[in-house]
Design a protein that fits this description.
With about 375 residues, the protein is mainly beta. Helix content is about 5%, strand content about 50%. The chain has an 8-stranded mixed β-sheet. It is globular and about 65 Å long.
Length: about 375
Amino acid sequence: MKDLIVYILLIGFNLSIHCQVSNFKDKFELPDQVKETSGLLFFKGKIITHNDSGDSANLYELDSLNGNLLRTINITNATNVDWEDIAEDNTHIYIGDFGNNNGNRTDLKIYKILKSDFENSNTVTAKIISFAYEDQTDYTTRPNNNNFDAEALIAYNNSLYIFSKNWLNVETRVYKLPTLSGNYTAIKISEANVEGLITGAVTSNDHIILCGYDATAPFLIFISANRSPDENVFSNGFEKYSFTNELGAGHQVEGITIFDEGKFYISREASNNQFFTFTQKLFEFTYNRALTLGTKFNNKSLANIYPNPIKTSFIINSNKPIKDIYIYNLLGKKVLNSSSKNINISALKKGVYMIKILFDDRSFTSKKIIKL
């Protein structure tokens, strides 16, 4: 996260569906105590944030109207090695101490504190969830050159989901953990080629919204609630929205939280280097895609595919003008992009794929296809 040179060299991703974001504005500068704001939570009308490393084990409660620091809450049995995100369920707050720029940590953990303790005292004790990734066997030190860093966490379906920040391939993996204290193996349940660095996560109406950045700008990843019922959260692909117009390059967006229906905050950490100089700041925006399931997402009546199953090629029949067509494998990785209604997939391996058809009016539909 600190190495902006690596960040500048990342290949940008320009598949942005420029719709559904409105009312983007600066909210306020964050206090000096949280220059490295890394996670965000909106709780009881207040904003909760924390630094990523080099700080005591503190959470900071801010006034949501002006950003003034209201309280500092210390977790007495915790250490801030590299805190990267904060999440909640009905009864607890979770802090992810799993930042792993070097890829060599063997002390990854999540701190779990009762909401009632947080509300009633400025000192709290946490339960600890320790873990290791099921697919990591090499712990060689590789600064900003590994796929076992992580900065995004949600509490979802009575489990914890971690979204990795892959420096090597700019993809993300999803790992699942129990919410109970103990020592666990984090199980990989999904992955996708987001072509960027994921830094925060939040849920809304069963949608999952991620934030991150690439070489061009910060971005959002929208994972619709309209997806397969299993744990593969990228089973139906995703949308990516780039904040190119709102922010542009150099803004290290770190945390995201929802504060009202369809309304979000994202935080930017301070930076001062040869490329950019920014203060720590909170931004506010409306993201309409998160309001409901949406009639435009996965509307299967907008287009038909023939034949399906497919041996070599297929035709898309639609009365609406088509702008772009994207095909994803079941891991959420884009394998083909076209603007033609007649598509040849003979080069693809046999299996099941998801196709997303984007129309000129920015609506789209998603369908399953089978390659024979």
